[in-house]
């Protein structure tokens, strides 16, 4: 057993942002580690995830998940190694995933930790392709807006965590043509060279509708929307009859900036297009099954991943600000310790 620390560092919410968050919204605080109660484990976190949805939790408003509290540690997905345990179910030495990220050590009830198998894949993948981001892409393209063989599929935020995996999953599901949108030439090149996209759109270059028309002259069957705003509007316009749209995210509006004009829903009605929202938590019952499938995809090269890694807990706020502004390719991660 490794030496047990007495103190842990955590990132707290110092102030609620107005518009885009800044480093001043976060504080790094050191606190004593609580004694383990029966059924609890002490985890040394090795990796943590920063995710766009956390921006919504910084605001004090009702949502599908409660807001972060001022002066308290943020939370989010993390993986780590159990260094002390008062739980028979999860012994010292186990690797676990859990939701007490944004700190270097976490005391948690064993019931809220899930053992992960490092023999399946490097543990950081359990925050990316084998984590909720991979599951989001899979659920969107198999259940919310199912891909059928030969379909033309459009994916936004395509060089990010969900998008980079989604394009490859669409291909594995039999899509005929997969088109991705991302910001800037370096990312669009990556879509073609690394992530298996057939065509790439640089949304920062303007004329989004014209670029999509060029990439998919006969229209699209499936759209995985992570962006909202103009992306969703031009996708509805480009949908073929009975097309399917998975409403996964709307990052263009997360900082409360003026929302761009939304889609013409009458066009969706007359083309019998379905638009369906999703929350990945509804798919947790199939998580184990998904991990088994996706671990196979990682091992045989069906799905290739990239990670952008920031080093150290003190860099977690910068990593989070970066994921909102596009500093990442693939999954944005923070390596701890
Ligand atoms: P990500 O794609 O790795 O990172 C976000 C990316 O969004 C950035 O890298 C940036 O890439 C792009 N972006 C930022 N502002 C933009 C804008 N105004 N217009 C277009 N693109 C913009 O993040 P992720 O974790 O994979 O999440 C992707 C989306 O899925 C988010 O909307 C997230 O909230 C959503 N999500 C939903 C669920 C669910 O259960 N519904 C679960 C997971 C994720 P560029 O450089 O290309 O701009």
- The number of strands is 15
| Mean of all residue-level pLDDT scores | 97
**Oligomerization category of the chains in this entry:** single chain
Rg for CA atoms: 20 Å
Structural class: alpha/beta
Report the uncertain regions: none
Question: Portion of residues in helices?
Answer: 25-40%
Shape: globular
Sequence of secondary-structure elements: EEEHEEEEHEHEHEHEHEHEHEHE
Bound molecule kinds, no repeats: NADP nicotinamide-adenine-dinucleotide phosphate
What distinguishing features does this structure have?
26% strand, alpha/beta, 337 residues, 9 helices, seven-stranded mixed sheet, 26% helix, binds NADP nicotinamide-adenine-dinucleotide phosphate
Topology:
Elements: E1 7-13, E2 26-32, E3 40-49, H1 54-57, E4 78-85, E5 95-98, E6 105-109, E7 114-115, H2 132-144, E8 152-155, H3 161-172, E9 177-182, H4 185-193, E10 199-202, H5 208-215, E11 220-225, H6 229-238, E12 239-247, H7 265-270, E13 274-277, H8 287-300, E14 307-311, H9 316-325, E15 331-335
Parallel strand pairs: 8-9, 8-11, 9-10, 11-12, 12-13, 14-15
Antiparallel strand pairs: 1-2, 3-4, 3-6, 3-15, 4-5, 5-7
Helix pairs in contact: 2-3, 2-8, 5-6
Bound molecules: NADP nicotinamide-adenine-dinucleotide phosphate.
NADP nicotinamide-adenine-dinucleotide phosphate binds at residues 51-53, 132-133, 136, 157, 159-163, 182-183, 187, 203, 226-227, 248-249, 251-252, 278-280, 323, 326, 328, 332.
